[in-house]
Each structure stands twice: as structure tokens, then as C-alpha cells.
Amino acid sequence: MSACKVENCTICMTSDAVCDTCTSPFVLSGNVCSCPNTHLAVRSGCQICASASPGCVTCKQPDIATPTVECQSCFANFTLAAGVCTCASRNCVECEPEVAGQCRSCLPTHFLNGNKTCVPCSIMPLCSECLFAGGIVCRKCISGFVMANNECTAVPPNCAQPADEVVCARCEDGFALTAQNTCTSCQAVAHCEKCIMRRGVVSCYRCENQLGLTRDRQCEKCDAVLRFDSPQCVCGAAENCGNCDASGTACQECFRGYQKIGGVCVKAKCQVENCFTCSDRPDSCMVCDSDYDLTNRDTCQHRCSGQPQQGSFCKETASRTYEWANCPFKPEEISQMLMPCVCGEENNCANCDFMFQNRCGKCLNGYQEKMGRCVECAAGFAKQESNGICVKVIIPEEVKPGLSAGVIVGIAVAVVGIYRSGCWSRYRCLRCCKEARASSDRAGNCYNRRLTIYFTAVNQCAFLQKWCLPKFNCSVTIT
């Protein structure tokens, strides 16, 4: 026996150029040691087919025509299709390559038992995904349930994304997330389809089909007249409508501040800095960007860092930083407040009660104090429906001299569309006082010789009479 010169040969009996036995796993074929069909030829030697293609017993060596490994036969628990072996054991992710019917790993909805078979997680009540670690451990519950203390517990009612068994992160459509992380129905506002919570009150932002959203966030029947003071009328999938076409699925006219481009109502760019969503006006914010809060003027102010103390409010400093400051008591300082004072869970406080810090002392301008709560507008103030804040109704002494007849007629024409079809449900039509330029309040009394429209007082009565309704000459919004 001589030293072999044949590559991968271990025994040469008669000549060093004639191989008798090859190195394992090579096989002898025509005095050449080659990889068997159960292996692939690689630089380091032979590699089993299963290492390149799981479940593969025999395979074809890649070549120029077929550059990938093509399996020719599979283990018993695999199925051959198009040169690939697929695990045939039910609910297996990875089969045991050499033992029929056994798995190495299972789908998330099953666990691997001691017999290496996949068992459904549903044997554990309400469980959809699990694993086996000395026992069955549930990792995910079925829809409508959440993990709590290693058990599946029902999620809070009407919750789409629970944080745990009592706290909700996101509500289903038709419900709003409260400060207590529970879900309350949008139907607190009649015919409301989608809403949010604002200052502890349900605020609607989308009504049911063919209904429009008024400035005070109520849902009313779509009307061409209402579009001048009402946000989107719901017309099927169409958005930002003032009213619907005959089909009820498209806009006939766009809401104020929008224009129709290619049959679609497109809103003008929001003008409020750091605003995520403007309301019905481009200068009035409804939802601010992250880290910003809505002020009582519908603008966005940067949120103060840290936790607030009772009797403090978030204030902008002269250097445009934002810090927690003591709530003011002087009227002139209260009038400049943009954010409410922190007084327990109360809303719209200007400062807190001396004796009971969790109750309001003074209210923000426009609110009246009742039993420690600021609940409604005071006399001489009108509520901004977009955010619930009350603002002072400013009544000028006279219309400025030099106002041309054309301007006056223009104002009259602008408002005639409101009165021609009658009053809106939230307004009340009243007779004007006989005296020229006078209007009446809700009790029918003369009110400062002015009529208030859109919270702006103007001398309207004298020249509006010929356009008003026959019996009711003026519509006022004075509270």
C-alpha cells in the first residue's frame, strides 16, 4: 500500500494513483472521490442537503442552469414541491428533519409538548398565543380580552386598544376616551358618529350621514344656509362639505374655508402655529401637536415640564419659555391667562379656593362660580363652541363714520342668506325694537342699540329690516 495521490482518498492498495477507499462521506466513482447525492460539494468538503434545504434527503448539485439547491427527495414528514421540502406536520414552523410527525417549533397559536407535537393554545381558556415552559404560558388573549395576572380578562367596554384590564388606550369608533381612560358614547351628542373629550365634555367632530356639525358641536340637518357657520356636513365618504348633492354621497358646496378642486373640498392651510388639526376656521385650533395644549383662545401653547402643583398654571415667560406659575388673583392678570389654574379636577379655574385647593376660587373670564365649579358663561360673555371657553361680547359705541353704502349693503347681503330661510335652531328670532339701530335680547328688551352677529356687534337693524323674516326682523346671539 502506497501513499494516495487521488484527492479525498484514504486507501490506495495497488498504486498511489488508484483509489480503493475514499474519505467519508465521499464515495468512489471511476477512481474519483465525489460527494454522494445526499451531500453538496463545497470548498471544505461535503455538506448534507438538509443544511442547505431543510428536510431535504437527496439533492442536485447547483450549476449554471440551476444556481440554487434543488431537492430531489425529502424526509417522511416533509412534502416535495418544485424542488423544495415543506414541513408536512400540522401547525409546525420547523419539522424534526429525520423523525416523521415531530416538530422542533410550532406556530404562535400552538405550543410544543413533550412528544414534539403542536397543541392548540385554545386548551387554555381565552388564549390565542402561548408557549410551553414547564407548563402552558399564555402570551396573548383572544380579541376582547387582555392579559392580567397571567389570566385573560375582558377589556374595558367599547375599548379598541386596552392598556390593561381597567385602562383603555384607544376607544372604538363612536366612543371617546375619558380622563379616567374609560370609553364614553359619542351619542351624548345626538347623531354624533365620532368624538373626543374636551375639558371633561364630549365634543363631536363627525356627525352621521347628511348631518352637519354646528359651531357648538351639535349635529343638525345639512343646509346650504348652515354652511356659513357650520363645519363639515357628512355626505358619504366626501369630506368638508357645506351641504350634500342629491345623492347624499358627494359635496354640493364646500364648507367655508374650503374650495372644490377636482370635485373634492380642500381646506386652506391651518394658520395656527403648532396646531395638528384646525377647527372650522384656519385660525382656530381644535387639536394641538404633541407637547402642546389648547389655550382658551384656540391657539397652542407649549406644555410645561414636570408635575403641576395645586394653584399653579402653565405660563409663557418673557423669554418664551414655559413654566408653572402661581395662579393670579388680580383681575387684570386673570384676563391675560391662556391656560386654566390647576385646582383638583375642576375645569376653567382662574385660581383656587383658599380653604379648599381642589375647588375653584375665581373663574376664567366668562365663567360663573357655582359651588366651587366654573360651569357656565356669565352675563355679557358668549361661549366659544370650539373649546368651551367664554369670551367677552364687545359692543362698540357706533359704526365708524365714513362707512360707505356699498360696504353696508355688502354686510347685509352677507347675512341675508342666514335669515332668508329662517333662524338656526340655536338662535332665536326676535322683533327689533322700534327705535332705529336697536335690537332685542332674548327677553324682547332693547339691548344697547345693537345686534350681535358671530359675536361681533354691528348696527344692523335699521338697514336689515327689509331682508328679515316678515314677523321677526333680527336674530341675536347675546346671552
From TrEMBL:
Keyword match S-adenosyl-L-methionine: no
Domain of life: Eukaryota
Keyword Transmembrane helix belongs to the record: yes
SUPFAM superfamilies named in the record: Growth factor receptor domain (SSF57184)
TM ranges: 402-419
Keyword terms, alphabetized: Membrane, Transmembrane, Transmembrane helix
Chain ranges of the EGF-like domain: 3-34, 48-86, 120-153, 234-266, 269-301, 351-391
Record InterPro entries: EGF, Furin_repeat, Growth_fac_rcpt_cys_sf
Protein name as it appears in the record: Cysteine-rich membrane protein 2
Organism: Spironucleus salmonicida
